[in-house]
Structure formats: structure tokens, C-alpha cells
Design brief:
By secondary structure, the chain is an alpha+beta fold. It contains eight helices and 37 strands. Bound molecules: (2S,3S,4S,5R)-3,4,5-trihydroxy-6-oxo-oxane-2-carboxylic acid.
């Protein structure tokens, strides 16, 4: 995709200029008319992140929300013509007397949560801008309980008010956040208002240009989460790489007294361990275990684990396994493993739109199984937590990634902060999942010194947060005739090298792969993290007719010939399991706003290439049999 990248840079710059003008206008207006936008001291600009929310006592706020489409973001102003105008967060009602109130949530239309707005209302299909959500709910406070408002994901920027008080702000469309609302909720009727803005930004992560639909809105669950006054807010329990008879890790308590003890109980293993809390609020564990049934794709064994501290206790289902590299191999539980995989976007099968439900993820992963795969690359951002939970249960290994995609502003410290925050949220949410073996910090990022500095900082952050898994990224490769060269300096900071190439689609012919050789500058495991080509399901032609199923199948056939010759290949995840919506894909009658590189159409029709890959995976003709 190098060619497309260069073009992308131009587009980014052109759009950047026009966006600058618009931003200038808007900032000027805002400073004239409003005090809104600054966050009061009591609100959290970096909201808390709870662990294991799907095992907490919760009340769902999913369902119907009142919504106001607000392209000029007029609902955020509090002053206009020197007259006080309530921002929409006040949730006021128009009255005959008194000042003008020019909105009314109760009379506005409804959107379902979770769900992107684009596929729920025709007029919002291409909408990129601010939209307001409001929901009324009843709440009865409990003694000695703190309450958090949890959002699974909101794309892209959001500000949250409860009963008119701003409780938090968040940026990033695919990671969870939690706003504390203990003191904001009343006994009885309450309401929450959210402004959500999916406007693409030059300094966003991702930035202006992506090859997926910019689905806006509250795209994942909203929950009220009850926890005790002081509670278990983070933990990591994993198998020791060097000693697979020991579970290591920590439990962190929010507000703990030093010296008090945390308990970890695994009934099936007869484990009942205790450890004291030190000054940093953490209790460190080294738990000896015997007769551990290791988690693997063939045996996705999960243990019931209970963590206790004071009045809090938290349960989880954890698998125990190790993942490491040795030379150019990836070892699962000490044994070499070959990753027979496929990429997936969080696009919902059949209905399209953002995937969020159990049905969505099980449909996708069942196809993965049918393909004979043991591995998925979840592109290009963290997917719903149901996906990694299902992968844990179904024994499918996972590469999980943050949307550091193409040419983001690598020299902007605020962009780094944003990427770090998304990386932390991804790791904290999913480090209890045995299926996740690879944290990816980037996809196809152009090689510049600023970018290497930026991404090496992220690689170090992964190691600080989770040293039990591997760091990777999908790199661009250089081409010299029929030689592919992998020498991106970022490679030195990674455990596993991912490379994307599109021989037979963006360059050369499918058969060119037969003669292509690979020069890899790193003695590390390599994953072919993308290859493929487009085909419209049901469109047939010869092996030379682009867009036909035969042409796509021929790309796969030739790729498989090439891949067998790459000695240090440890896995592959062709692009992609299912067709997905993309605003870049405009060919009428064929693409119609879908990237058609799926092995399966968005309506579930399997293309010929699916069966080519299935045969190679089932017969293990690609990669070494483990
Ligand atoms: C890539 C990108 C992916 C695109 C794909 C394509 O290299 O990583 O996001 O969708 O190519 O289809 O061009």
C-alpha cells in the first residue's frame, strides 16, 4: 500500500489546511460566546479505568436514548448575544415564559445504544460531527458504594454530564472509560447527557484518513457499575514464562491500607494465596501451582479465579499459558506455534455497522474456526470485549492493536499522549485474556525519525505494562524488483515483525509472488500480517479478471507458494475475513462503499479464496505443523 500511502499524505495535507481554517473560525466563535469546553475541577479529564467490568454488579443503560443532531455544535454554548442560553447538558424544557430554550430532548428522535448512528438512520449515514444523547434513569444509592458510569466505547470525542454536572471527557473511539458519579447521582430520577463528536481530526488517533467507516456514536454498552468504597481496580495474573508451575502478577486496590491482605483463590487448583499491600497499593503474587491444565487453541481451558480484599471481591475466568520468542520462532507453552490466521474488522456480519453483540462476535469467530484458523488479527483498533472473551473460550489466539494507523502526527506530543492512553486502556482491559498474545502498536506507518521515536516509546510502554506478551506492529516493506526488503528501523523495538504486502493487487501480478524473495534484516519471527485482493461475491471470470472470485483465489494460491519459502514465517493473517464498509471504495456495482477483500461477503457468502485458504490451513500445507 505504499503508493496509496503517498497519495494519502497529500489528502491529509489538503484536508489539514481546510480543517485549520475551520478550526480557527470555530475557536474564535467559541471564545466570544462561551465559557463551555473547559472542564471544572471536579470532573475527570482522564477518567478511571475499571477492570473486569463484565463481572461487576451493573445496571445497563443500553436501549433507547433521545438524540439531537447538532452539526454546528450550538448545544455546547452557554452564552449567546450576552444572554445566557443553556447548553444542552442542562436538559431544559422550552417554556412559554423565561428565556429561549431551543431544544427538547424529550421530543427528539431516538437512537439505540449500543450502536453506530450511521446505520440506524439514513440521514446520518455519512454524518461526521457532533450529536447529543440523553437518557433518564432511576437510581437508588447504596451505602458504602461508589458508582461509575462505564462506556465500552464512544467514537470519537465525548463529554459526559450527569444531572447537569460535567463528569468526564474522553478521546478515542475504541477504548472503554469510566466516569465516577457517586456524588452526582440522586435518589430517584437522574439523567445523563453526552455530546459525541466523530469529526475526523488531523491530530486524532486515528487521523483524517482511514480505510474503514467512521461509525459515530455510543457504539458499545453503557453501564452503571457499583463497587465498594475501596475496591479492586486492576490486576494481572499470568503464568511465569521461565517456570510454568508459578502464577505471577499483582492486584491493585484503590484506597487500600498498606499491609492489609489481598486473596487469590482458584478452587480447581486448590490455590488460596494471600499477599500484603505495599505503599503503591499493589499486592504482588508468586503462586506455585501443580497439575495446571495449560490454555491453548486445542485446549482453551479457563479457570474460575476469585480475588478478594476487604468488602470487595471480583471473579474472572482466566486461562494460563506462556508466550515468548526463541530466535525466529514463537513459542506457546514452550512449543513452537504457527499462527494460521485472518484479519477481522469490527464490522457486523449481515446487518453491517459496528459489531457489538455476542451474536456478532460468535458469527465472526465461528467462520474463523471453519477456515481452520487458530489466530486472528483484530484490526485496526481494540474490538468489543465480547470478542476477546469469545476468543478465550473458543481457543483463538489474538493480535490486538491501537489505531496508530498510517501517517498520524508523530511529532505532536499530544498525539503521543492520546496513543499512550489508548494503549493503556487496551492492555488494562484485556490483560486477563489468555487468547491475546500480541499487542500491536501501529499499522503501516511511514518511516521517519519522529515516528520511530514515537513508536519505540509505545513499545516500551507495552513492556512496562505487560511484559508477559509480545510487542508487534504491521510494517511497510520496501520493494526492489522481485525482492521484498524488511529493514524498517522500528523492527529493532519489536518482538515479532508484522509485514503487509499486496502482490497481485496494488502491485505486479498474482503469479509474481512465485518468484518473489524476502530479505529480512531481523532474526525475529515474522508474520505476514496482510495480503489479499478484492472480489465481489458471485462475480466470476478468468483468473485474470480483477474483482472476480477467481482472481482473488489466484492471489491466495500464489501467495501460499511464496509464503512456504520464508523460513522465519511464524504466521499469517490475510486481509480480511469479511467485506467491510469504507468511504474510499467507490467502484459502482462492485464496491459500493465496501472494501471487498473479504473471504466472505458482508452477507455471509463465502468466496472461492475462502476455500483455498481453508484447504491450506486444514491440511497444514502452510507453516510447520506443530
Ligand atoms: C492496508 C491497510 C488496510 C487496508 C488494506 C487495503 O494495507 O492496512 O487497513 O484496508 O490495506 O485493502 O488496501
Amino acid at each position: 500500500m505504499v503508493a496509496a500511502m503517498d497519495q494519502g499524505d497529500d489528502i491529509v495535507q489538503t484536508r489539514f489546511r481546510s480543517v485549520l481554517g475551520w478550526l480557527y473560525w470555530r475557536m474564535a466563535l467559541l471564545s466570544l460566546v462561551s465559557g463551555a469546553g473547559s472542564i471544572p475541577a471536579q470532573a475527570q479529564s482522564t477518567p478511571t479505568l475499571l477492570a473486569d467490568v463484565d463481572h461487576r454488579a451493573t445496571m445497563s443503560l443500553d436501549g433507547d436514548w433521545q438524540t439531537i443532531v447538532d452539526p454546528y455544535f450550538s448545544g455546547q454554548y452557554t452564552f449567546h448575544h450576552e444572554v445566557r442560553r443553556n447548553g444542552f447538558f442542562m436538559n431544559a424544557k422550552p417554556k412559554k415564559d423565561g428565556g429561549p430554550v431551543e431544544y427538547d430532548f424529550s421530543k427528539s428522535s431516538i437512537l439505540k445504544v449500543p450502536g453506530d448512528w450511521n446505520t440506524q438512520r439514513d440521514s446520518l449515514f455519512y454524518y461526521e460531527g457532533p450529536l447529543w444523547y440523553e437518557k433518564d434513569f432511576h437510581y437508588v444509592p447504596k451505602l458504602h458504594t461508589r458508582v461509575f458510569l462505564h462506556f465500552g466505547a464512544v467514537n470519537y470525542r465525548s463529554t459526559v454530564w450527569v444531572n447537569t454536572e460535567k463528569v468526564c471527557e474522553h478521546e478515542g473511539g475504541f477504548t472503554p472509560f469510566d466516569c465516577e458519579v457517586t456524588k452526582t447521582l440522586h435518589d430517584g430520577n437522574n439523567f445523563v447527557v453526552l455530546s459525541v463528536d466523530n469529526t475526523r481530526r488531523p491530530n486524532g488517533v486515528p487521523t483524517l484518513e482511514t480505510d474503514w467507516w467512521n461509525y459515530g456514536g455510543i457504539t458499545r454498552d453503557v453501564l452503571l457499575v457499583d463497587v465498594p468504597d475501596r475496591f479492586i481496580d486492576d490486576y494481572d495474573l499470568h503464568l511465569n514464562r521461565a517456570n510454568r508451575s508459578e502464577i505471577d502478577g499483582f492486584v491493585h486496590i484503590d484506597g487500600a491500607d498498606t499491609g492489609t491482605e489481598v486473596g487469590v483463590i482458584i478452587p480447581e487448583l486448590k490455590v488460596s494465596a494471600k499477599a500484603p499491600i505495599s505503599q503503591d497499593g499493589r499486592a504482588e503474587f508468586k503462586i506455585p501451582v501443580t497439575r495446571l491444565n495449560l490454555w491453548s487453541p486445542q485446549n482453551p481451558k479457563l479457570y474460575h479465579v476469585k480475588i478478594t480484599w476487604g468488602s470487595d471481591s471480583l471473579e474472572d475466568e482466566l486461562g494460563f499459558r506462556t508466550i515468548e520468542t526463541r530466535g525466529t520462532q514463537i513459542l506457546l507453552n514452550g512449543e513452537p506455534i504457527f499462527l494460521r490466521g485472518i484479519c477481522i474488522h469490527a464490522e457486523a456480519p449481515y446487518r453491517t455497522g459496528r459489531a457489538y453483540s455476542e451474536k456478532d462476535v460468535v458469527t465472526l469467530l465461528t467462520w474463523v474456526r471453519e477456515l481452520g484458523a487458530n489466530y486472528v488479527r483484530l484490526a485496526h483498533y481494540p474490538h468489543d470485549e465480547r470478542m476477546t472473551r469469545a476468543a478465550d473460550r473458543m481457543g483463538i489466539l489474538v493480535w490486538s492493536e491501537i489505531p496508530v494507523y498510517w501517517a498520524i502526527q508523530f511529532d505532536n506530543p499530544q498525539v503521543l499522549e492520546n496513543a499512550e492512553q489508548q494503549l493503556t486502556a487496551m492492555i488494562r482491559r484485556d490483560r486477563d485474556k489468555a487468547s491475546v498474545i500480541l499487542w500491536s502498536i501501529a499499522n503501516e506507518t511511514p518511516n521517519t525519525p519522529a515516528r520511530v521515536k514515537f513508536l519505540s516509546t509505545l513499545a516500551q510502554q507495552v513492556r512496562d505494562l505487560d511484559s508477559s506478551r509480545l510487542v508487534t506492529a504491521a510494517l511497510l516493506v520496501r520493494t526492489n524488483g522481485l525482492t521484498k526488503i524488511v529493514d524498517d528501523p522500528l523492527g529493532q523495538y519489536l518482538d515479532v515483525i508484522g509485514t503487509n504486502e499486496y502482490i497481485g493487487w496494488y502491485e505486479q501480478e498474482p503469479a509474481s509472488a512465485d518468484q518473489t524473495t524476502w530479505q529480512i534484516a531481523f532474526q525475529k519471527p515474522l508474520i505476514m500480517s496482510e495480503f489479499g485482493g478484492e472480489a465481489k461475491a458471485g462475480l466470476h471470470g478468468g483468473g485474470e479478471d480483477r474483482w472476480s472470485e477467481e482472481y482473488q483465489a489466484s492471489i491466495y494460491q500464489h501467495q501460499l507458494i511464496m509464503l512456504k519459502r520464508i523460513q522465519q514465517l511464524c504466521g499469517l493473517s490475510p486481509w480480511i475475513l469479511m467485506d467491510f464498509r469504507s468511504p474510499n471504495r467507490l467502484l459502482p456495482g462492485v464496491q459500493d462503499n465496501f472494501n471487498r477483500k473479504g473471504l466472505i461477503s458482508d452477507q455471509g457468502e463465502k468466496k472461492q479464496a475462502f476455500y483455498v485458504l481453508q484447504k491450506a490451513y486444514r491440511e497444514k500445507t502452510v507453516g510447520k505443523a506443530e
